[in-house]
Write a sequence for this structure.
């Protein structure tokens, strides 16, 4: 397969995986911490009051969604591409970070949560890209042992 086509497919798969993971975790969080009925998302003052009143668990769920989405997306992109891990991490992590910053501009977040997201997302992408060759080597070595077909 053409390497550029493979890279494009890998990036698309990684981005889709990242945003699906984020959506699933945030949907679960909204189930545990539902918004009050009739919440006006267009009113910044009401939205700020709502977010401020959320329990820490709800805010940690948002952070978990961002981080696990990044990890999952970069992992999938690197797995499909099996090379150019830094590029995969940069593109997928960069898009998750850009979407997170856009979300922060629309919905006010506590400073600690915004900081953790801005630092954690690139860090998670970088770590997955650095660990990916070792993970693949371990999987390949394990599969080549006798008795594993």
């Amino acid at each position: 397969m053409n390497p550029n086509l493979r890279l494009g497919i890998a990036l698309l798969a990684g981005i889709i995986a990242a945003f699906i993971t984020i959506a699933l975790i945030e949907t679960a969080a909204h189930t545990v911490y539902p918004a009050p009925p009739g919440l006006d998302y267009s009113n910044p003052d009401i939205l700020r009051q709502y977010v401020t009143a959320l329990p820490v668990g709800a805010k940690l769920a948002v952070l978990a969604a961002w981080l696990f989405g990044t990890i999952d997306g970069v992992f999938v992109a690197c797995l499909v591409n099996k090379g150019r891990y830094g590029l995969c991490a940069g593109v997928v992590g960069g898009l998750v970070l850009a979407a997170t910053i856009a979300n922060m501009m629309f919905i006010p977040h506590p400073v600690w949560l915004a900081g953790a997201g801005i630092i954690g997302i690139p860090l998670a992408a970088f770590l997955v890209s650095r660990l990916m060759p070792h993970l693949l080597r371990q999987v390949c070595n394990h599969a080549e042992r006798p008795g594993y077909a």
Remarks:
- The longest helix spans residues 111-144.
